[in-house]
Amino acid sequence: MHKQSIYGLTYEQLTEWLMDHGQKRFRADQVWNWLYKKRINHFSDMKNLNKETIELLDENFVLDTLQEEIKQESKDGTIKFLFRLADGNLIETVLMRFNYGLSVCVTTQVGCNIGCTFCASGLLKKSRDLDSGEIVEQIMNVQKHLDQQGKDERVSHIVVMGIGEPFDNFNNLVDFIEVVNHDAGLNIGARHITVSTSGLAHKIYEFADTGLQVNLAISLHAPNNELRTSIMKINKAFPIEKLMKSVDYYLEKVNRRITYEYIMLKDVNDHKEEALQLVKLLKDKRHLTYVNLIPYNSVDEHNQYQRSDTATIQQFFETLKENGINCGVRWENGADIDAACGQLRSKQIKKKTG
């Protein structure tokens, strides 16, 4: 029998499961506390549970479906983890240090089918979705790594921007958010959680309807359909007009600022003309808009792209600013450790198959 990760259950699901198996409701609080506050490694460490409950958990669940394969540490404190899943697949998780806290970037799929032409994540096609437990376990493994350092540090922010398209794994994503946000567990505030999508418009409507107060980021990368389709094939299914209609719905429903990710590709999307088109696209939403300009991390397999020059990025930034668009430049973390998302994983797989 394939045992599922206990971290995949929301608090409500765990409560219901335990009661269905003859346990009292209060057991859920005890189990939850051992999992997320005490962060035990074995069910037998749950000292105030009786033998029967421990055996029940042991028979049906596991605590560790992820095994650490590689850990790369950068000079700036960024740590990239390569985890092996129970079925042998590899995923990446990244811990980043900022002045506002410790942020973890999680993966939601094994591989990616979105097929952005500049991205290392899509070099390997999607083979499956991660279940909610495998996503939560990424946070737990990073937190346990921090616990072992003995510095009393905790993960304070989460970005769902690793390998895969989160909205293509919607139900597991929502369960994951509920688990890490729960105030009796890791208690990571909704406003400290950001989900990034390549622009699955139909799912943006659905996400707005969940009422979750987490942050939304959209990988835009181009201000017009022709250019966006040439670098992101998802734009054929969800062209900019369709995407912006879903954005209007989201803003009306949630009234929270959206971040637009814009990767700076030399001589592709970084001219003043594109900056002005971007202003035009976003100006009626500018009070709830932030544009994140991202200098490109080069990927061996996508050598047709280079990073825009610093002066070009600066000029693009200034054009947006002058026209009332909130924006910033995100210089990367961990440039010395396979910084581009998916890079470490694809290198390892190549090593094994090459």
Draw up the topology in text:
Elements: E1 4-5, H1 11-20, H2 26-36, H3 51-60, E2 61-62, E3 67-73, E4 79-84, E5 90-98, E6 101-105, E7 109-110, E8 128-129, H4 132-149, E9 155-160, H5 170-181, E10 193-197, H6 201-210, E11 215-219, H7 225-231, H8 234-237, H9 240-254, E12 258-264, H10 272-282, E13 289-295, H11 310-322, E14 327-329, H12 343-353
Parallel strand pairs: 1-2, 6-9, 9-10, 10-11, 11-12, 12-13, 13-14
Antiparallel strand pairs: 3-4, 4-5, 5-6, 7-8
Helix pairs in contact: 1-2, 4-5, 6-9, 10-11
Descriptive notes:
The protein has a ten-stranded mixed β-sheet, with helices on both faces. The longest helix has 18 residues. It has two domains: 59 residues, DNA polymerase, domain 1 (Orthogonal Bundle); 287 residues, TIM Barrel (Alpha-Beta Barrel), CATH 3.20.20. With 354 residues, it is α/β, with parallel strands linked by helices. The chain is elongated. The model has no long low-confidence stretch (mean pLDDT 92). Strand 10, helix 6 and strand 11 form a beta-alpha-beta unit.
Compact overview of the structure:
By secondary structure, the chain is an alpha/beta fold. The chain has helices spanning 11-20, 26-36, 51-60, 132-149, 170-181, 201-210, 225-231, 234-237, 240-254, 272-282, 310-322, 343-353; strands at residues 4-5, 61-62, 67-73, 79-84, 90-98, 101-105, 109-110, 128-129, 155-160, 193-197, 215-219, 258-264, 289-295, 327-329.
